[in-house]
Design a protein that fits this description.
Helices cover 51% and strands 2% of the residues. It has a two-stranded antiparallel sheet with strand order 1-2. The chain has 12 helices and 2 strands. By secondary structure, it is mainly alpha-helical. It is flat, with a radius of gyration of 54 Å. A hairpin with a 2-residue loop joins β1 and β2. Among the domains are: 26 residues; 43 residues, no CATH class. α11 crosses α12.
């Protein structure tokens, strides 16, 4: 079955002709077809400098609407800030009164620039400043020199030994050459009878001399207080005294002028002396600061009654050097080292030398048996730590004596 055609070819040709004529009439009315025209006639650049219209539009856009101005104003209920900013430390500048008055008026008018405050905060505010601990110059862990190791080289070991010997000798020299302390008690000596007689004679002579001096002084005072006869001065003597006074006054003024002229001539020398003094003061200040910093690196500032005493250098002698850790002499100084480090950094107040309490004799009687434990038990404990055989014997003795009520094993 053949398909049905919706249009004949004659009708299609007639439609195309009509469209062509319509397009031709439109191009004729518009000035020609756009496809045949050049680009310069179609497009052009506007180079005019008349921006009056644009400025007006921008001004209208810059104007704040009434609704926006209402929103910008600070309301009665202020916002609670999520976080507080740290106040900036600004140097206070002295302003004249006129500027201060103008600033006050502008601050009163500008409600929009008001600072955001916390409604739950106190009026006075948090005035307490945070305390910041200063970082100590001394490190927490100080590394010992290489000469203090268990297997050092000969040069490093000799250097460390020299430092240790120098520290000990300084202590000895300070004790010998330093000022001797004032004795708490001065022991007196008995005086013989002959010495007492001589002392009494000296006291009497001193008293007689004092009495004679007092009498002479009384005579001089009486002589001074006698009435003097006033002599009548002549006109010649008065004139002479006046001339003498004027002469002395003129000489003093001349001396003053000479001194001033000398000082003016010596101005460059004076300026040099002042500059030298300033340089010496600056050098002295630098020396003091350097010495203070060195002191802080070696020891902390004085915190308490006692002064910090550093631990001596832990260096082994040449006889104690074995070259292996197995045969090394045990020295448990870790806790002491940490405690000294805390004292050196100023975190703990240094204390003095503490005396160990003396162990008193303990007597305990039970069932007719008497047991005495003396302070010699400490020596036994030390021997136990050194020798395991002695420790075993000591533990067996303590186990057997437990029934007698011993205080400590």
């Amino acid at each position: 079955m053949q398909k049905r055609l919706f249009g004949t070819p004659q009708s299609n040709d007639q439609r195309n002709v009509d469209e062509y004529f319509e397009k031709a009439t439109k191009d004729a009315l518009s000035g020609g077809s756009l496809t045949h025209l050049p680009d310069q006639s179609l497009f052009f650049i506007d180079k005019d400098k008349d921006f009056s219209i644009k400025r007006k539009i921008e001004k209208h856009r810059e104007k704040v609407l009434r609704c926006d101005s209402i929103l910008q104003r600070s309301t009665l209920v202020q916002k609670v800030p999520s976080s507080k900013r740290k106040p900036k430390k600004s140097k206070a500048k002295v302003l004249p009164k006129e500027k201060l008055n103008t600033i006050k008026t502008t601050e009163a008018d500008q409600d929009s620039n008001a600072t955001v405050l916390d409604i739950w905060d106190n009026k006075e505010g948090d005035t307490k400043a945070k305390k910041k601990s200063k970082r100590s110059v001394i490190p927490a862990v100080e590394i010992e020199p290489p000469g203090c190791s268990f297997n050092p080289s000969t040069d490093d070991h000799q250097d460390s030994l020299a430092v240790a010997v120098a520290d000990e000798m300084q202590k000895v020299y300070r004790a010998e050459l330093g000022p001797q302390p004032v004795p708490r008690r001065v022991h007196g000596t008995k005086i013989d009878e002959e010495d007492m007689y001589f002392l009494d004679v000296d006291d009497t002579n001193d008293e007689d001399l004092k009495n004679d001096e007092d009498l002479e002084n009384d005579d001089n005072v009486a002589h001074e207080h006698r009435p003097l006869k006033n002599k009548r001065l002549t006109q010649v003597e008065l004139n002479r005294r006046a001339r003498r006074k004027e002469q002395l006054k003129a000489e003093s003024e001349a001396k003053k002028q000479e001194n001033i002229s000398k000082e003016i001539d010596c101005l460059p020398d004076i300026i040099k002396e002042i500059t030298k003094e300033d340089e010496e003061k600056h050098k002295r200040l630098v020396r003091r600061t350097v010495a203070r910093l060195e002191r802080l690196r070696k020891a902390p500032p004085r915190l308490g009654k006692h002064k910090f005493e550093p631990e001596p250098v832990q260096v082994l002698l040449t006889e104690e050097l074995t070259g292996s850790i197995r045969t090394l002499k045990g020295c448990c100084t870790l806790a002491r080292d940490r405690f000294k480090s805390l004292e050196k950094r100023g975190l703990v107040v240094p204390g003095g030398k503490r005396k160990r309490p003396v162990v008193a004799d303990v007597r305990h009687v039970r069932g007719g048996a008497t047991l005495e434990l003396h302070s010699a038990s400490e020596k036994v404990l030390e021997a136990c730590c050194r020798n395991p055989v002695v420790a075993a014997v000591y533990s067996s003795i303590c186990y057997n004596l437990r029934d007698f009520g011993a205080v400590r094993p």
